[in-house]
Structures are given as C-alpha cells and as structure tokens.
Amino acid sequence: MTTPPSSIALPPLPEMDDAQRLARAREFADLLQRRRTVRTFSDASVPRAVIEQCLRAAASAPSGANQQPWRFVAIADAATKRRIRQAAEAEEREFYARRAPDEWLRALAPLGTDADKPFLETAPWLIAIFYERYAVDAQGAREKRYYPHESTGIATGLLIAALHSAGLATLTHTPSPMGFLNAILQRPRNEMPYLLLVVGHPARDCTVPDVARLPLDVVTAYL
Question: Which secondary structure element, helix H or strand E, spans residue 32, and what is its range?
Fold first, then answer.
C-alpha cells in the first residue's frame, strides 16, 4: 500500500477584496496584452540573476503527478549560440525549401519569416526547453512520465509571462527537428527538445507585424 505524502498548510494567498482582485487581474491582463513576439533583438546584456528568477517562476508550474519533467538550459556563451544558429538555419532551409506545404508557407507569409535567424546570436540569452520522455532511476531503469508535454507547456507559459513582466522580449523558436540541441548542449536521450526561447531587449528600431488577437468573446464561453 502506498504511503500518502505528508501535508503542509497552504501558503497564504494575497488578501484582497473583490475590487482589489479585479484591479489586480486587469493590471496583469493589460500587461500581457502588450506582449508581442520579437524577431529583432538588441545585443544589450541581461543579468543572469534576472533569468534565474524567471526560471524560478517557470519551475513553480503544476505538473502531472508532480514529476516536473521540464529541463531548462540557459545559454549566453557566444560560441554555443553560434553553433545553435548554424544548426537551426540548416533545418530551416530544409523546411522552407522542401518540407513545408504551400498552405503553411502562405500562413507564415504575413509574418515575414524565413530561414535566416540572426536573433539566435544577437540576443543575449537563449533558453532551450526540454521535456523528459521518461526518467532513469539510480539502477538505470526507466520511469514513466505523465503529461510531460502539457506540463512543460504550462511551465513555458509561466516563463514567457515572467520574462515579459521583467521587461524583456521573447521569441518562441521551433525549428524541426531539434535533435541538434541534444548534441550541442550534451543533453541525455530521455530529454526531448520542446522549444528554443530567445530572450533579450528588442532592437531600438524593432517593429512587429500589425496583427490582432481574436476578440475575447470568440475564444471564451461562460455556462
């Protein structure tokens, strides 16, 4: 019979009335509404301590069976970023030239993306996010992971929100396949690349596509 885990008191939530709660919710929503994906970055530095605190926020995410299957590799080393750019662009050239169906290319056209990814070197930080397909115990046996994609997706969302809250710009980059990240970053085979998050300050002349988010009443329902 499995021994139930010990329990502790729930850490207190902030005390506020409904008006304060609404104001806090509105303020946070307004902050995230200003978040935009950035593709032109400044090379201005970002302290490691800021990245660490944002990763700390991400690692607080809920996960299936509390297995916390996410793994983050924060990269500031210029040589490593260069290798990642070279490998990513090789995959992207294949994608744009051979792999991507015409429908997908038409969907990407308004965003102005192509196989050239200079931001992978310009931005001060890359955060490679992996999920564990399975764990390996001390005896080398595999242990199942439950909902690793979903859990890592939640953690990634918290990370993006934390970085935006810290005044930083981000780009979610997903070259396919991404196995080169395991090789370059020397990650074990049980870890699968989830995405590559580009982090830094936007370039002074940065612009973003003039696109709108769907209205709230389109993406929500109340019963």
Answer: helix 18-33
Assigned token pair, 31:
């902050």
pLDDT in tens, 141-178: 999 999 999 999 999 999 999 999 999 999 999 988 99
Q: Write down the architecture of domain 38-205 according to CATH.
A: 3-Layer(aba) Sandwich (3.40)
**Cβ contacts of 106-115, under 8 Å, gap ≥ 24:** 110/209, 110/211, 111/209, 111/211, 112/209, 113/39, 115/89
- Helix, coil or strand: residue 191: strand
Residue type, 67: Q
CB atoms within 10 A of CB 96: 16
The DSSP bridge pattern shows strands 70-75 and 142-144 to be: unpaired
Give the β-pairing of 169-173 and 142-144.
unpaired
Q: pTM value?
A: 0.92
How do the domains of the chain map onto residue ranges? 38-205
